[in-house]
Amino acid sequence: MGLAASGRGGATVSVSMHKFRGPGEIKWARERPEVSKEDGKVAASGTFSAAGDYIVRVQVNDSSGEGGGGFQCCWTNAHVKVTIK
């Protein structure tokens, strides 16, 4: 997944990984993986406790943090389907 490592004025972004749906638990190697300053890419890995279809929610926040300091700016979510056999 590629992201801009910095936004307007050089503000950094953070990424967090969450289980949205699925039959088991996910243990993330890092719930908040690092965003590469060189290319803006993120690599995440986790251990799934059960086989099946999962939806992983990836949340990206700008430097204002979760909830934008009390205002819902500036963050976004992506939902990624993962199938574990």
Order of helices and strands: EEEEE
- Averaged pLDDT, please? 84
State the CATH class. Answer: Mainly Beta
- Helix and strand content put the structural class at mainly beta
Q: In the CATH scheme, what's the topology name?
A: Immunoglobulin-like
Strand order of the largest sheet: 1-4-5
**Tally of separate domains:** 1
Number of helical segments with 4 or more residues: 0
Q: How would you describe the shape?
A: elongated
Distance between the termini: 22 Å
- The value of Rg in angstroms is 14 Å
CATH architecture: Sandwich
Spans of at least 5 consecutive residues whose pLDDT stays below 50 are none
Explain how this protein is built.
- With 85 residues, the protein is mostly beta strands.
- The chain has a single domain (8-84), classed as Immunoglobulin-like (Sandwich), CATH 2.60.40.
- The protein contains no helices and five strands.
- It has strands at residues 14-21, 26-28, 46-48, 52-61, 75-84.
- The model has no long low-confidence stretch (mean pLDDT 84).
Short description:
By secondary structure, the protein is mostly beta strands.
